[in-house]
Amino acid sequence: MSSNILSSKSLVMFEEIIIFCILGILAGLLAGMFGIGGGLIIVPVLIWTFVKLGFDDSVIVHLAIGSTISCIIFTGLSSAIAHWKKKSINFSLYKPVAFGIILGSFYGALFAVQIDGILLKLIIAIFILIVGIHTLFNIRIFSKEIKINNIVSVFAGSFIGFLSSILGIGGGTFSVPYFRASGLSLTSAIGTSAACGVPIAIFGTIGYIVAGINEDILPNMSYGYIYLPALFGVSITSVFAAKYGAELAHYLSQSTLRKLMGTWFLMVSLILFLI
Predict the structure, then answer these.
(1) Tens digit of each residue's pLDDT (9 = 90 or more) over 183-207
(2) Cα–Cα distances in Å, from 85 out to 36, 92, 136, 243?
(3) Would you tell me how many other CB atoms lie within 10 Å of the CB of residue 92?
(4) Which helix (H) or strand (E) holds 226?
(5) How far is CA 127 from the centre of its chain?
(6) Residue 183, Ramachandran bin (φ over 0: left; ψ between -120 and 50: alpha; else beta)
(7) C-alpha distances in angstroms, 194 versus 55, 160, 197, 212?
(8) What CA–CA distance (Å, rounded) separates 23 from 141?
(9) For residue 78, what pLDDT band results from cuts at 50, 70 and 90?
C-alpha cells in the first residue's frame, strides 16, 4: 500500500515537472519576442495546475502570481541580456523608470494579497482582454508622442511596477506603450521593456515572500507566496528559450509582432474566464 502511494506521488511530481518545464519554454519565447516577461502565459497555467493539485482555493491565485513574478527574474534577465546584445535597450529612458518600478512592484505585491483570489483572476482576465483588443487593432494608448522627463518616468515606473506586481506580469503591456509614446521603435520599446521586467520581478518577489511568510495554509515547498517547484521548473527552461524569442522579434516585422501579441492576449483572457 505504502509503495503504491509513493509511486502515485512520484508520478504526480513528475507530471508537475514536465508541465513546469514546458511552461518555461513557452514563457521564455514570449519574453524574448514581446518583452512581456512570460507572465501572461505562466499565471493562467499555474492557476490551472494548482487547482488540479488541490491547493487551497483562497491562496491559488496569489500563489500563481507570486510564483510567476519570481520566475520572471530569470526569464527577464535572459531576455534583457539578449536584447542588450542586439543594442535595443535605451538606458537613458530605462533608468528613471526602473527607479520607480522598485517601490511600485514591492507595494503592489503587498496590496495584491488583500484582494480576493476570484476577483483578482477576473480583473486579470478583463485587463488582458482590453490589452489584446488594443494591440490587435493597433489602437494607440497615446495618440501622439508624450514629453518625457525624469519625474514623469519615475511616476510611470511606479505605476507600471505596482500594477505589474498585482497582475503577475513583467510589465510589457504597460511599458511597451509608454516607451512607444516616448518615440522609440517597437523593437527598441520591447527591448527596454524587457529590461524593466528585471526590477519588477526582483522586488515583486520580495513583496510576495514578505506577504506570505506567516501564511499557514500555503502548500509544502512554498516560501511565502512562491511555490518553489514551479519557480525552478519554469526558470530552468525559460532562460534558454528567451534568447530565441529575442531573435524572432528582430526577424519578424512590426506588423506581425503586433498581430501575434494581440492574438495571444485574447486567447489568454478567454482561458482565464473559463478556469
Answers:
(1) 888 888 888 988 998 999 999 999 9
(2) 18, 17, 28, 10
(3) 10
(4) strand 226-227
(5) 13
(6) left
(7) 32, 13, 5, 27
(8) 30
(9) confident
Angle made by CA atoms 48, 234, 262, in degrees to the nearest 5: 65
The CB-side HSE value for 247 (13 A sphere, CA atoms) comes to: 5
Q: How far apart, in whole angstroms, are the C-alpha atoms of residue 83 and residue 196?
A: 12
How many CB atoms lie under 10 A from the CB of residue 111?
14
Over residues 246-258, the pLDDT tens digits come to 777 777 777 787 7
Tell which residue, 18, 56, 60, has the closest CA to residue 43: 60
Distance CA 197, CA 241 (A): 16
Helix (H) or strand (E) holding 7: helix 2-34
| Grid cell of 112 as nine digits | 495584491
Backbone φ and ψ of 222, nearest 5°: -105, 145
Model confidence, pTM:
0.80
Residues 27/71, Cβ–Cβ less than 8 Å: yes
Q: How far apart are CA 191 and CA 159, in angstroms?
A: 19
End-to-end CA distance of the chain: 34
